[in-house]
Amino acid sequence: MADALIVADGLGRTYAGAVPTVALEGVSFTLEAGEFAAIVGRSGSGKSTLLNLIGLLDTPTHGSLVLRDRDVSRIGGVERASLRNELIGFVFQYHHLLPEFSVRENVAMPALIAGKRLDAELTKRVDETLDVLGLGGLGAKGANDLSGGQKQRVAIGRALMNRPPLILADEPTGNLDTESTDAVYELFRKVNREWGTAFLIVTHDQEIASMTDRILEIADGHLKQDVRNEFAKPSRGSRAV
Amino acid sequence: MLPLRIAWRFVRTSRAQSALIIIGIAVGIAVQIFVGSLITSLQASLIDTTIGSSPHITLADPKDGQPVVYTPRMQTMLASAAGVTSVAPTRQLPTLYVNGSDKVPLTLIGATLPELDGIYHIASKVTAGTASLRIGEVIVGKDLAVKYSLKPGNPLPVLTGSSKTSLHVSAIVDLGASAANLRQVFTGPDYPRGQLGYRADQYTDVEVQLSDPFQSKPLAADWTQRLPGVKVSEWQADNKDLLGGLQAQSGSSLMIQVFVLVAVALGIASTLAISAVQKSRQIGILKALGMADARTGRIFFAEAMILGVSGTGLGVIVGYLLIAGFTLGTKNSPSAFPIIPQPGFIAISAGIGILVALLSSLIPIRKTTRLDPIEVIQNG
């Protein structure tokens, strides 16, 4: 288990209230470094809750979660924030860029949060990332000056900035057209293969899930299936990114 | 550094909102500086007009009509006392100015010219003639001179008891108070001494003026203990109405300033709270990207600092302009008094302005710290 990136053991999340709500219960699985997997399930099945727990945005009420050999189930807020910055890159359904900042600053933000300065070296790295994303030359533009597909690619660049071992993507193409969706998945694949970055993609779209190597299905807060997809489809287009 | 950078960007991208809050702080600080300086200067002017040209502490014999002895010990004590600016041992002699059939009661205040100048600032108040108190010379007040058409060089016949003599007017002064201008006449130390039959070290009063008139109370209490057999009087005990007026004025000025600061604080707090709500999406994203709760709170602390420093800086400039405008506008008014900006007071006002801005950021900081990034992410 030397390459295990995520080890979830009996992971659960119950929301307190007059009637406690069980959002997730007894989820156990292991994700190896460099895997390209999808979490599928209907709306309200608990897949986003699982993603929030793995992304250290939420705390499990049951079970344990180990990230890179480190038990993160009960760690404090400051430590969670630091690990989130170091180990995880997020891509959300909505791009969530900071409109007050330029494209370059948005991409650099995780590095800035980690304490780096936007000096020549970091700027070069950001611009290289933008080139990989097909956004070369747009670094100085405002985040709001881009199209929807471009914004989502900037958000992907931001997720990749600190070269995290894991990218968590929550319906990352939910707001994109087919063409942009394919471009995003091809980009994910490229990064996964070339950089060895693991991807865990939440989606309710079976066709998108079929493009991944592994599918975890969540239903009613439980891990219903965990299957290897040996016949992962290529993306619908073969657009270069 | 990053929170400051983000805060600066928030301020810049919400220009109208930032400008309004900066103007709000500036108006508050400007009013604070103007009202504070106005009241302080008005009080200083009032005090100067009322007691600036009179003794703040008077040493006399406890028995009426008996002279006080100006001993070497008393001289040493007064010379070494902190805050004493002038000491004038005087001999005050009631007399009558004889003008035909009119007999006008006067008080002759006898001392050397430098001593009298230290207390009554005679040199700066001469309206005619040249201030001089050689033997037989007197300096009279403006009202007496006008009423009896006295001019420098004119004789001033006086009757003291049964002794009649003619003194000569060397100068006319405006002491700032009609009663003093009509009744007080300054002369050298020798004529009253002769009339009173005092020794060289005997005086009716030893008059003292202080750099800070409000130190008269503790000094008088100290001297009362150190000079047994001497009656020590101070101006505050004799001017309770004036003091009450000054204190009421200070109180109302303080209240105005407090209300202005409260209004400024509420203005900043509400604007920053709105800003925290407006920027909650950005804060949630920053948290998701790994920014710790406390650090996101520092963004609003930095924003408050930027707004507070800018608003206060502008407020100080506007405050100075208001003072300059007031001074210019009242230049020709007979009741005008100079408003002197006090650097210490302005520094305190600026410090309070920035502190209020920083304290006002506590509400948005609390709001920001509690923000759950999941809510922001899920709500898009």
Structure report:
The complex is a heterodimer of chains A (241) and B (380). Chain A is an alpha/beta fold and 241 residues long. Chain A has a domain at 4-95 and 165-228: P-loop containing nucleotide triphosphate hydrolases (Rossmann fold, 3-Layer(aba) Sandwich), CATH 3.40.50.300. Chain A has seven helices and ten strands. Chain A has helices spanning 47-54, 77-87, 103-113, 120-132, 148-160, 178-195, 206-209, and strands at residues 4-15, 21-32, 36-40, 62-67, 70-71, 88-91, 166-170, 198-203, 214-219, 222-228. In chain A, strands 6-7-8-3-9-10 form a six-stranded mixed β-sheet. Chain A has a four-stranded antiparallel β-sheet with strand order 2-1-4-5, covered by helices on one side. Chain B folds into two domains: 2-49 and 243-379, no CATH class; 62-229, no CATH class. In chain B, the strands form two sheets. In chain B, strands 3-4-9-6-8-7 form a six-stranded mixed β-barrel. In chain B, strands 2-10 form a two-stranded antiparallel sheet. In chain B, helix 2 packs antiparallel against helix 10 (240-278) and helix 12 runs antiparallel to helix 14 (362-370). Chain B is elongated. The two termini of chain B are 28 Å apart. The chains are: A alpha/beta (241), B alpha+beta (380). The interface between A and B is medium-sized, with 29 and 25 residues.
